[in-house]
C-alpha cells in the first residue's frame, strides 16, 4: 500500500519508534494522528511534523488500551482528515520482569501489548472489509519470535501480539485488509533501557540481553524499514536481519536453542565465569 494521501493513527507516537513512524509517514504524504499516553509528548511530535509539513499531523493523549480512547482517536482522524486507512499499534510496555509480577502487572502488560491491538482491530477491520482495503501494523518484538531473557510478561505478550497479527492476516487478507508485524531487537528508545534503570536485577538482565545480542538501531532506521515493508505489503518486518536466522535455529532444533539461551543467560548473569 502506498502511504501518500492515506490517513494513519500511530499509537505510542510521543517518541521512539512511534514518533519516528509518524514523522516518516508525514514525509511520505500521509496525514497522521499521533497518540500517546503522554499528551504533551504526542502534541510535541505533531508540532515538529507540522513545522516541516503544515497540517500533516495532530496529537492526542490517552490510554490506547481503552476502546473508548481508540474510538475517539478514530473520530479525531475523521474530523481532521477523513476515514482511517492505516493503524500502527505501536504502544507498548516492558511489564514486570518475573514470577513476582502481580495479577495487576500481568493485566496491564496484556492490555497494552495485546488487547490494545485487538480492540483497535475490532473497531477498524469491519469498516475496512466493507471498503475493501485497510492496513494494520502491529509492533511486537523479536521477543515475540524468540523470547526475552528476564522479561516474562514482555515475552509472553509479544508472542501473543505476533499470533494476533498472523490471525488477522490470514482471516482478512483476502478481503483487502493488509497486516504487518514489526519484530525488532534493540532500538534506541526509553523502553529499551527501562529495565536497566529500574534497579531490578531481572529487568537489567533484559536490557543487557538485548543490547549485547546485536546492533541497537535508531528509531528512524526502523521507521524506514516499516514503510518499505508496507509498500511491499510484507507481513514480517525484521530491521535486524539476524533475527530471521535465530528464528530458523529455534525452529530447527528447539531443545538446542533453549540450551543456547540458558548458556547466554548464564554468561550475562556471571560474566566472570564465562
TrEMBL record:
EC number in record: 1.-.-.-
Record carries keyword Oxidoreductase: yes
Keyword tags: Oxidoreductase
Signal peptide region: none
Keyword Oxidoreductase: yes
Pfam family for this entry, one: adh_short
Class of enzymatic activity (EC top level): oxidoreductase
GO MF, any single term: oxidoreductase activity
PANTHER family to which the protein is assigned, alphabetical: 3-OXOACYL-(ACYL-CARRIER-PROTEIN) REDUCTASE (AFU_ORTHOLOGUE AFUA_6G11210) (PTHR43180), SHORT-CHAIN DEHYDROGENASE_REDUCTASE FAMILY PROTEIN (PTHR43180:SF66)
Similarity comment text for this entry: Belongs to the short-chain dehydrogenases/reductases (SDR) family.
The protein's name in its UniProt record: SDR family oxidoreductase
Organism, scientific name: [Mycobacterium] crassicus
